[in-house]
């Protein structure tokens, strides 16, 4: 057997071969448990649930990081989804697996917009969503988003009328391959540009159209940089006329 | 999407999922002359207009944008098109913005300056645009079920349900007693009515006929079988039917003097014919 | 990174580290494809289907044997199912797929009533229970009672339709603290305890319960067919009759 293993591209570590040394065997045992638990499930498995199966005091974070690294170059990767972990196929292998792809209904532009607003501004109320979009949001749009299980009601804002606040779900993270909400694409840049605020940021300015000289004066390099980073330049646009 | 004739209605009804053939609004309606269909409110319309002006939102002329929008609303009115309230509110606001931008503010004016108002609008446009970009970025990520896949054939956790049922003897007895009690009160048992079958009646009649010396009323004849008044109608009906059969066979005679008068019967050929009774 | 990998119990092979050597990279590529395909598939993947995704002339048998060996000591194993392959939790970790959930449930009022009728009137058929209760008894109620292990199917009544007869189990006596089922209080005792009103119809009777294992004259034992049909082959159950 050891010959075959040596020849294998994915050999087991030698630690396992003469596996009598206590700590290594113990770690292997734990790794196997972690693998089995997460592998068996389609849904991400809560870190707590894994910890419950391991000896008390196990550094589960380190253990999971190790397993994650072991699978980093494999066909299947260990990914973190919020407080949970899941095995997912490596994203470069999507072409292989089209057969498994589930045809999902595509969300309307309006629904996508509301979803993005909820993701980036959460917790956010319906009134705030409407303020951002400048249009009344139909109840149906929120229902559809809730139906996707990407959006949930979080609670109520402590303001008069106690409006419901919306946010994203772990399913949302799972679906879009995000470890946590903080990993939303462009989040830092949007924050830096003040575009996630409800008020115009203090340093926010647009050039006055009737005053080209002012345009120069009003050019806030910080704002301009941010806008470029945000990808606000639509494809094909030179933007510097 | 925005129904101009019904400004108070939801602005998004019926289009929650992307239509299979999305229409490019700017192509179908390059000048935004009259049609607001396909726009999701005034901000969306303004964004589309801004794009015709400049691709870089940070460099658009807010004043030009405001004028373009006001012109659009004017045209719509000329054509007597009803615009959703949102569009008119925006028009009013933009008219105010325009005046603030063009006219110098009086000394000590507490109102926001034209510049501040313009910033406010530019901010809202950029914020909305940023959210749209974000949505596109999100949707272009490697998505679960499309680019990345979960375990196709998961091995479910078998939940070994150890149910512990709680019930004590008192519960049990209470349940039993109360439901029996309930049933004993609510259920009325209808005793089965004794009905003689025709053959039963005939057999009994034949057996009894030997005792008939003379004309005998049927109810007397059957007296011993009619102790229970409930049985009476059934017994009479069955034996009458059976007696008719015996009459047909020539074994019995029956007579009745009037409707509902007592029925008399006697055996034939047993005794000499007696005098008819009155 | 190589340090972390070295420290890992499940390191990647050094082949991958300086992965420029043609054959090894190629093999890894194929291994990744095999892993991802089998992982994502809803059912075991036919060897042919895998081969179709690999360069022609690949020794798929050897490749799969290698992957299988790589996973041999893992928490998840690659197993052959006929001509197809699937990942399965390692046998010794099957316990991870079991979760014990102890929940205390109260019996519903209906279930209590049926339980009581079975106790007093056993052996009793469902139709008889319904006659006593005056309402239709749902299958679910009897199922729940079977689940309590307080009720059992005894046999079949020797009447048209051969209905199943129900009775109580020793567990029933245990749970309700009865030495024998005859200890259930009778009419007078029920009256005395105030559970029954003193005015009951003259024909009101409380039967003397009898849970004798011996079938009564009007009961037939279950046949082998019954055992299958009624699913009586519960662990430790009466399957050997």
Note the topology.
The complex is a heterotrimer, with two copies of chain A (241 residues) and one copy of chain B (278 residues).
Chain A (H helix, E strand, L loop, with lengths): L1 H6 L6 H4 L4 H19 L4 E2 H5 L8 H11 L5 E6 L2 E6 L19 H13 L2 E2 H8 L5 H9 L3 E6 L7 E5 L1 H6 L11 H6 L19 H7 L2 H9 L12
Antiparallel strand pairs in A: 1-3, 2-3, 4-6, 5-6
Chain B lengths: L24 H4 L13 H12 L8 H17 L6 H18 L11 H26 L18 E9 L2 H18 L11 H12 L6 E2 H4 L10 H17 L3 E5 L6 E5 L11
Antiparallel strand pairs in B: 2-4, 3-4
Helix pairs in contact in B: 2-3, 2-5, 3-4, 4-5, 7-9
Task: Please give a structural write-up.
The complex is a heterotrimer, with 2 copies of chain A (about 240 residues) and 1 copy of chain B (about 280 residues). Chain A folds into 2 domains: about 5-95, Arc Repressor Mutant, subunit A; about 110-230, Arc Repressor Mutant, subunit A. In chain A, helix 6 (about 110-120) crosses helix 8. Residues about 1-20 and about 205-240 of chain A have low confidence and may be disordered. Chain A contains 12 helices and 6 strands. In chain A, strands 1-3-2 form a 3-stranded antiparallel beta sheet. In chain A, strands 4-6-5 form a 3-stranded antiparallel beta sheet. By secondary structure, chain A is α+β, with helices and mostly antiparallel strands. Chain B has a 3-stranded antiparallel beta sheet. Chain B has helices at about 25-30, 40-55, 60-80, 85-100, 115-140, 170-185, 200-210, 220, 230-250; strands spanning about 160-165, 215, 250-255, 265. Mean pLDDT of chain B is about 75; it is low at about 1-15, about 20-35 and about 270-278. Chain B is mainly alpha-helical and about 280 residues long. Chains in contact: A-B, A-C, B-C.
Strand percentage of chain B, roughly?
5-15%
Head-to-tail CA distance between termini of chain A: 70 Å
Quick check: average pLDDT of chain A?
77
Strand content of chain A: 5-15%
Question: What class do helices, strands and sheet pairing of chain B give?
Answer: mainly alpha
Assembly form of the protein? heterotrimer
What is the radius of gyration of chain B computed over CA atoms, rounded to a whole number of angstroms? 51 Å
CATH topology of the largest domain in chain A: Arc Repressor Mutant, subunit A
Lateral strand order in the biggest sheet of chain A = 1-3-2
Helix content of chain A: 40-55%
Termini distance of chain B?
Answer: 103 Å
The largest inter-chain interface, given as chain pair and residues per side, is: A-B, 79 and 72 residues
Globally, the shape of chain B reads elongated
Whole-number average pLDDT of chain B?
A: 74
- Number of E strands of chain A: 6
- Count the DSSP helices of chain A: 12
């Amino acid at each position: 057997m050891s010959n075959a293993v040596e020849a294998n591209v994915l050999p087991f570590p030698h630690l396992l071969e003469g596996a009598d040394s206590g700590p290594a065997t113990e770690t292997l045992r734990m790794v196997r448990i972690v693998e089995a638990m997460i592998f068996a499930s389609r849904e991400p498995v809560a870190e707590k649930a894994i910890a419950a199966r391991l000896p008390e005091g196990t550094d589960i974070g380190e253990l999971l990081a190790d397993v994650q690294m072991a699978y980093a170059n494999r066909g299947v990767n260990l990914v973190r989804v919020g407080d949970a972990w899941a095995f997912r196929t490596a994203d470069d292998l999507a072409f292989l697996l089209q057969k498994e792809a589930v045809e999902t209904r595509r969300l309307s532009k309006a629904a996508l917009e509301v979803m993005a607003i909820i993701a980036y501004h959460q917790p956010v109320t319906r009134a705030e969503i409407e303020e951002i979009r400048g249009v009344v949001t139909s109840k149906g749009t929120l229902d559809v988003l809730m139906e996707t299980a990407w959006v949930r009601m979080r609670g109520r804002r402590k303001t008069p009328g106690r409006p419901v606040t919306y946010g994203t779900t772990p399913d949302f993270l799972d679906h879009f391959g995000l470890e946590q909400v903080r990993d939303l694409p462009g989040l830092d840049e949007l924050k830096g540009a003040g575009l996630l605020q409800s008020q115009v940021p203090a340093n926010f300015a647009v050039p006055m159209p009737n005053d080209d000289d002012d345009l120069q004066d009003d050019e806030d390099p910080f704002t301009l940089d941010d806008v470029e980073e945000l990808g606000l330049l639509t494809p094909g646009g030179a933007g510097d006329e | 999407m925005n129904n101009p004739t019904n400004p108070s209605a939801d602005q998004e009804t019926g289009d929650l999922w992307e239509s299979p053939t999305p229409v490019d609004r700017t192509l179908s309606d390059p000048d935004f002359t009259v049609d607001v269909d396909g726009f999701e409110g005034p901000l969306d319309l303004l964004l589309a207009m801004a794009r015709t002006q400049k691709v870089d939102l940070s460099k658009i002329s807010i004043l030009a944008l405001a004028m373009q929008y006001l012109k659009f609303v004017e045209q719509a009115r000329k054509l007597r098109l009803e615009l959703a309230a949102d569009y008119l509110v925006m028009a009013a606001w933009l008219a105010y913005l325009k005046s603030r931008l063009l006219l110098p503010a009086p000394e000590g004016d507490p109102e926001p300056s034209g510049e501040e108002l313009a910033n406010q609008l530019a901010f809202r446009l950029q914020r909305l645009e940023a959210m749209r970009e974000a949505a596109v970025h999100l949707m272009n990520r490697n998505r679960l079920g499309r680019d990345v896949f979960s375990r196709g054939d998961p091995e479910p956790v078998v939940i070994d349900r150890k149910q512990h049922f709680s019930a004590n003897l008192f519960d049990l007895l209470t349940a039993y007693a109360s439901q029996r009690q309930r049933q004993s009160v609510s259920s009325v048992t209808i005793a089965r009515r004794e009905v003689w079958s025709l053959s039963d009646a005939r057999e009994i009649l034949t057996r009894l006929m030997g005792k008939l010396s003379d004309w005998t009323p049927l109810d007397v004849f059957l007296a011993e079988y009619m102790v229970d008044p409930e049985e009476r109608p059934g017994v009479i009906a069955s034996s009458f039917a059976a007696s008719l059969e015996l009459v047909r066979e020539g074994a019995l005679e029956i007579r009745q003097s009037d409707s509902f008068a007592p029925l008399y019967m006697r055996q034939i050929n047993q005794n000499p014919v007696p005098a008819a009774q009155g």
